[in-house]
Amino acid sequence: MRIKWTDKFLKVAESNGLNCQILHLENGWIETLIVNGKRCYAKSITYNLNKKEYYTGVDPKKLHQKGDLVIICGGDSNGHFRDIFLIPWKYFFNTLRVGEPQNTYRLPKVYMQYRFYLRDRNIKWVMSVQPAGSRELDITQWRYSVDGALVALK
Question: What span, in angstroms and rounded, lies between the C-alpha atoms of 14 and 108?
């Protein structure tokens, strides 16, 4: 079962006085929301302890939208929050643009996504997009604990 980290974070945010409004769900998962007046794209990801990374994809249609922040809510396989990333929209999506969308379904079905990693490199966190060798973005400054993310969003 995949954990809906964004849903969990939203509950914590609302209980701490942040004004939150869900704008769009995709297959039951929060995708777009307003948090204290900021339009945010949201992703829920579970950390792979062995690889020291998060890995997921983004629909290419998102690259044509506008917003303020990308909120990536991550946790471990035991159900505990691990990281909240509050990445400025333009940095996140400009990094995705250097990659190439890939089919994430088995043929004959087709669903194209930009696949990206958030990797823990011990001294810093980086975002990289497939294919390998594409540009990396240092995202260390945008990594927060849950409490730190709440303060930053206020």
Answer: 42
Name the maximum alpha-carbon separation found in the chain: 47
How many of the other CB atoms lie within 10 Å of CB of 36?
13
pLDDT in tens, 8-65: 999 999 999 999 999 999 989 999 999 999 999 999 999 999 999 999 999 999 999 9
User: In this structure, are strands 69-75 and 38-46 parallel, antiparallel, or unpaired?
Assistant: parallel
Integer Cα distance of 98 and 132 in angstroms: 11
- Name residue 115's amino acid: R
Q: Which residues pair with 119 in a beta bridge?
A: 53, 126
Give the angle subtended at the CA of 35 by the CAs of 138 and 60, to the nearest 5°: 55
The identity of residue 98, as a single letter, is: V
pTM (two decimals): 0.93
CB-CB neighbours of 38 under 10 Å: 14
Radius of gyration for the alpha carbons in the chain, expressed in angstroms and rounded: 15
Question: Can you tell me the distance from the alpha carbon of 4 to that of 52, in angstroms, rounded to the nearest whole number?
Answer: 20
Residue 44 gets the label, from left (phi > 0), alpha (psi -120 to 50) or beta, of: beta
